[in-house]
Amino acid sequence: MLKGYISPYNATVVQKLLDQGAVLLGKTNLDEFAMGSGSTDGIFGPVRNPWSYSRQYKEKTPPKSSSENEESDWVITGGSSGGSAAAVSSFTCFVALGSDTGGSTRNPAAHCGVVGLKPTYGLISRHGLIPLVNSMDVPGILTRCVDDAAVVLGSLAGHDPKDATTIQDTFKPFELPNLIDVRKLCIGIPKEYHAPGLSSEILALWSKAADLFKDAGAKVIEVSLPHTRYSIVCYHVLCTAEVASNMARFDGLEYGHRADMNKSTESMYAATRREGFNDVVRGRILSGNYFLLKQNYENYFIKAQKVRRLIANDFVKVFGSGVDILLTPTTLSDAVPYMEFIKEDNRTRSAQDDILTQAANMAGLPAISIPTALSKRGLPVGLQFIGHSFQEKQLLTVAKWFEKQVKFPMIQLEEVKRHDCSVFQHQKSVSFL
Amino acid sequence: RAAPHPAPGEGGEGRAYGWLRASTLRSGNAVHPPFASPATAALASWVPVVGLEIHVQISSNSKLFSGSQVQFAAPPNSLVSFFDASLPGTLPVLNRRCVEAAVMTGLALNCSINKKSLFDRKHYFYADLPAGYQITQQRVPIAVNGSLSYSLCIDNKMSQMVTKTVRIKQIQLEQDSGKSLHDDARSQTLVDLNRAGVGLMEVVTEPDMCCGEEAAAAVRELQLILQTLGSSQAIMAEGQLRVDANVSVHHPGEPYGVRTEVKNINSVRFLAKAVDYEIQRQIEELENGGTILNETRSFDSKLGCTIPMRDKEGKQDYRFMPEPNLPPLILYDAKSLPVNMNHQQVVNIDWIRERLPDLPSVKRAKLVELYGILPEHSFTLLNEDGLAEYFENVIKQTQMKPKKVIGWILNDLLSYLKQHALTVKDSPVSSFLLADLLNLLERREISSSAAKQVLEELWKGEGKTPLKIVKEKKLELIQDQKELEQICQSVIDRQEDEVIMMVLGRNQKVLNKLIGLVQRATRGRSNPVLVKQILEKKLSE
């Protein structure tokens, strides 16, 4: 739909980075209109996880058959901001921007072994972010370490008059302390995040992480977010409804692709939208319009909004009872091979993969995925921290401490020859597992 | 068609419709359409019900949600921001001035202002709606439950005015759409987005009106109110005020009938015509056993009728959804105003209320009280842009009493302006000049007929003062008593018949004729009162 479209203006987040001297290296690939959890449904083709070509993965995962080359074994990045995660992961850049509506920044961050930060809704301007779900979207930040994420956050956060949903309070950029006293912390482990399909590997990792905090003197308790299991269904109603609305502007009239159909305005619209949108997008538009019909509005949209409130209240209760940070897995498993991923359709995949990340968007809370360890297959696994609204400083402080503890290994790409290999020598290859 | 006689005793409700040739209302009479047979005459009373949806363009520098300029008749697509063009990633930012305009208008219409109101998206696909939805206020609008009072003349006589009230259901803020022009010759549609996103207030009335005249009078009063507030210039010809009429008819005591919506009404006059036509059409249709469809009809001003609009298959489901990019609109009053709030972010209802200007009804009452003019005069003064100021300026500069000045304003000045299609602003006769003239009259230096002659000269706008014209045309009143007596005598001498009649019966009419003759003889330079005295004296001799 936006083939050949060049935006005549910069998004606020882009402009802010440029104003701070950032160098734009390029634009990255993603699922079309950010709909997807694999970055496989873009018009430019699927994104490949750089770890597919890492020594760690190749050592642990021999090719399926000797006749096939490695090409068929490559794994997905996760999505929808897979291109950005891959860029950071493969040393193409230090920082990449993504978006996060249901986990689209944290999911690929976990699969690609990088830091993925979802800020609190309303902290960073959405002006220039093509909307998916206006009430849940945030710009996402992907970096190699938590300190970098804090730096980027510092230059992006703050009120934007062009975005009426940003808060008015002045944002004070912060530096993260190197040492913190974990004993003062209370870490919550929400039991509902032991979701069906969670790999035993990740479950074990999650448990180890909890122990890490406990051993350092933090209070680690099990908590309950009882409405977690409704979040996927709720998300799908609200997301498709907003999508149907947000996509209504794409008619080929003012910009973008326009079909070669002149019979009538309506037929031009119909042809343009059929040609310009992929199946995923069209499917969501149809569902969304269904939920917004007068006779369905009360039962679906309003109901979903009420459930959303319940989900958000779960967090309010837990955070109000003294919990500082929640610790959860980010994904159900490590990255799957592309050939396997595409066996299921986009909707099914999204429903499965969003379960652990999606509630934070419902509640507008800040969340961050930290690369924790390599799986048995040699692929990255991340764990997620969820914090109080607008308490990014505390969230990132804890995340940085955790990052230091786990010492996630650097990706070893043959193609990437590093002249500063002395730096590598200091990296412990012993993984957290 | 001859107007039927209303059946005696059939008062009907106050809203019954008087069958008419011209658009006037007779209240209290039941209707008998001329073609109804005597047998069905008793069945035939109808109650028309009219409600209005009035879209008012807010007078502001920029649009409701974006910074592009608001301007009439600019080059196509020259006032379109990224947001207006619905470029992806753009977001709405609420224009404070538009909120203030809506609050002002709500207060002037006696509405309750909702301290919290919400924005919604109304979805439909059309070439002039770039985003595929309009941002409006469907759930909770900014103002509700008000009233609009207006006046009507009974039987076209200005001296009998009656005040009516129509309830205002709500006022909501919403975006205007762009304009699409259909070029059927080339099978193309041209889209101009200059108007897309301009702020509108939609004023929705309850169906309290019963005919075209009421609708027109209500809209006229609303226009005056808006212009007084400055919240809109409300010029229908420039599309700043657009009216859709909802019309239905029913028998007294029965539920309301199916209503139609009439669009494409471009002036207050056409509004009255369109509403009356539609009422007639519905009555005829129902009388002939037909049914009324719940449809939208367009008013054709050339043919003077309503025609069904291009078919929209079935009813539209607008799939309303809250606008997620705009938080609820919170307004404050003196009590609820938070102390540390940035004043640029706050709209204070009480602050606005204190600064409301005098509304037309108040202005009229003041004019009547201050100057002793008749109520209907005050209506005419306010109805014409700038006329009330003109009148007051003349008053300031003349010794003539307001009650006399008003005659010159309404009868002479106004009729001249109308004849030449001029506005008060463009009058070649300024208030200064007119006051000057009236002073001459007041000082009895000229007669009133002479004054009219001078006025005619002044219209030419050649820059001469009244005094100069009087001197040039030798229009001064004859001050010399002897000269006047001579002229009167000569008239008497010539008009023997009249004199005889006068001697016989002191006939006033004849006397006036004689006075008139003297006036003619003096070319208006005689004081009629004096002439009358002289003639009477002479005739009694």
Automatic annotation (TrEMBL), chain A:
InterPro entries: Amidase, Amidase_dom, AS_sf, GatA. The keyword Nucleotide-binding applies. Its EC number is 6.3.5.7. It is found in: Mitochondrion. One of its GO terms (cellular component) is mitochondrion. HAMAP family: GatA. Belongs to the amidase family. GatA subfamily. Allows the formation of correctly charged Gln-tRNA(Gln) through the transamidation of misacylated Glu-tRNA(Gln) in the mitochondria. The reaction takes place in the presence of glutamine and ATP through an activated gamma-phospho-Glu-tRNA(Gln). This is Glutamyl-tRNA(Gln) amidotransferase subunit A, mitochondrial. The gene is QRSL1.
TrEMBL record, chain B:
SUPFAM superfamilies: GatB/YqeY motif (SSF89095), Glutamine synthetase/guanido kinase (SSF55931). SMART domains: GatB_Yqey (SM00845). GO terms for cellular component: glutamyl-tRNA(Gln) amidotransferase complex; mitochondrion. The keyword Transmembrane helix does not apply. Coiled coil: none annotated. Transmembrane segments: none annotated. Residues 389-539 form the Asn/Gln amidotransferase domain. Its EC number is 6.3.5.-. Signal peptide: none annotated. One of its GO terms (biological process) is mitochondrial translation. It is found in: Mitochondrion. Pfam families: GatB_N, GatB_Yqey. It catalyses: L-glutamyl-tRNA(Gln) + L-glutamine + ATP + H2O = L-glutaminyl-tRNA(Gln) + L-glutamate + ADP + phosphate + H(+); L-aspartyl-tRNA(Asn) + L-glutamine + ATP + H2O = L-asparaginyl-tRNA(Asn) + L-glutamate + ADP + phosphate + 2 H(+). GO terms for molecular function: ATP binding; glutaminyl-tRNA synthase (glutamine-hydrolyzing) activity. It is an enzyme of class 6 (ligase). Keywords: ATP-binding, Ligase, Mitochondrion, Nucleotide-binding, Protein biosynthesis. Its main location: mitochondrion. The keyword Protein biosynthesis applies. Allows the formation of correctly charged Gln-tRNA(Gln) through the transamidation of misacylated Glu-tRNA(Gln) in the mitochondria. The reaction takes place in the presence of glutamine and ATP through an activated gamma-phospho-Glu-tRNA(Gln). Subunit of the heterotrimeric GatCAB amidotransferase (AdT) complex, composed of A (QRSL1), B (GATB) and C (GATC) subunits. Belongs to the GatB/GatE family. GatB subfamily. HAMAP family: GatB. This is Glutamyl-tRNA(Gln) amidotransferase subunit B, mitochondrial.
